[in-house]
Amino acid sequence: MPERLPAIFFGHGSPIIAMKQNATTEAWRALMDAMPRPRAVLCISAHWMSRGIAVTGQVAPPTIHDFGGFPRAMHEFQYPAPGNVTLVRRVAELLAPDPVAATTQWGFDHGSWTVLMKALPDADVPLVQLSLDVSRRPAQHFEIGRRLRPLRDEGVLIMGSGNIVHNLGDVIRQDGVPPHDYAVAFSRAIKRAILADDHQTVIDFEKLGLAASRSVPTPDHFWPLLYVLGARHPDDEVSFAPDFIEYGSIDMTTVTLRPPHAA
Fold first, then answer.
1. Is the pTM of this model over 0.85?
2. Model confidence over 71-80: pLDDT tens digits?
3. Are 199 and 257 in contact (CB under 8 A)?
4. Which of 7, 51, 66, 167 has the fewest CB atoms found within 10 Å of its own CB?
């Protein structure tokens, strides 16, 4: 049997991270170096929303440059990881009777490849993306993660990619600016709940009031965290690294859930 793998939520931030080498990208690589090599990665990215549940079904999914206003070099990056038909079938099996559509109409968006080009730069681990079904409530996103949990014992890294705090309207595009008070308050509240294994507080994040509504003006970047927490085992150890807020309102916190015997 493969060794149980962690489940990780990456705070991916701006796509421009693809052009940087810094403490954040080094931390992402260190996370991968500290775990057994995955047989495959299942990524739930903030940047793929759909009606119904879908997965990338291609043998070689394309790299999607789903952004604008960045240097031309950003549009030249490729992350040529193979797909994995076996994993696609296994996801469909675990989520049955809910239908799972294997589509050729999507690929690897920047929520996956800007992280993985740093964490797994050789692009030699098969990758499948799972969409966010916009018709589902937060508790249902969490439940999908719970149903996917067996993958961790099958050599698959369950990876969410988004941000605990993601308010582009309040961004201050300057390095080193202090975070907004509401961003700090919300990030701390969510991390406290994660440490306490209080998944209900995270699911009901909107009940955290003004700090929640300003930190999560739209839920797309928050939902991937629910999948990772759904895949949690009771004895998982929790770590937050990197753990900071940039540009005032973009939380770069990465949440790692790892089995207690892991390095």
1. yes
2. 888 899 999 9
3. no
4. 51
